[in-house]
Amino acid sequence: MVESVxxxxxxxxxxETGDGPVQALSDVNLEIGSGEFVSFIGPSGCGxxxxxxxxxxxxxxxxxxxTVNGMSxxxxxxxxxxxxxxxxxxxxxxxxxxxxxxxxxxxxxYSRAERAERVARVLxxxxxxxxxxxxxxxxxxxxxxxxxxxxALAFDADILLMDEPFGALDEIVRDRLNEELLAxxxxxxxxxxxxxxxxxxxxxxxxxxxxxxxxPGRIRDVIDSPLPKERPLEIRDTPEFIAVAHRVREGxxxxxx
Length: 257
What we know:
Layout: E1 4-17, E2 20-33, E3 37-41, H1 48-55, E4 63-68, H2 73-78, E5 82-85, H3 97-108, H4 112-125, H5 141-153, E6 159-163, H6 171-188, E7 191-196, H7 199-205, E8 208-212, E9 219-224, H8 239-256
């Protein structure tokens, strides 16, 4: 039995707006096991990011329950159970790459020596060894996103939350980062929740794909990937990959019917 790291049961979330209530999530039930790579895919406004924000204790549900590592999202946040990677790298331009990665460690009170050791280790993990002294403007967009991932990994959280981290990058860079992220996941074993609008990206990266419907956000399908853990980019041309992509596409299409 795989340990459940994130559990949602009957999850609802309604935003109160000037134009009246907006239901972002409706009766979401989901179990995510330890070490899984789970992608969330669906149309804009379907609640993908909202679900991540509930897990991260950035939004409060109006119904149902969510647990993270067996505790409330608030307790998990205080226990530093997750790292969060946003679509924009969000690096401070006046800080070096090493200084940006070290920032959460500084806030948490790690010693200078431990900060230096952790920064060096995670920069090597994301293939940015030797770039600690550079500033963000000296790095490409893809390298900046890798630095953002390193920052989320620096304090060794069990869970990695990623909200369309490669959405603004061109296809060639995105393919390369997909390969690197898959290799990083294989090395670290982090439970990863990943939001994307890309069907090929979701199928390539994931052990499980959650297909969501238009607002109010409901889970339309949960697909356990049959693909092997080792996945060269060429796997996207195989019948197995195409079959999973077809099922995702059908789920998205059904959500609009």
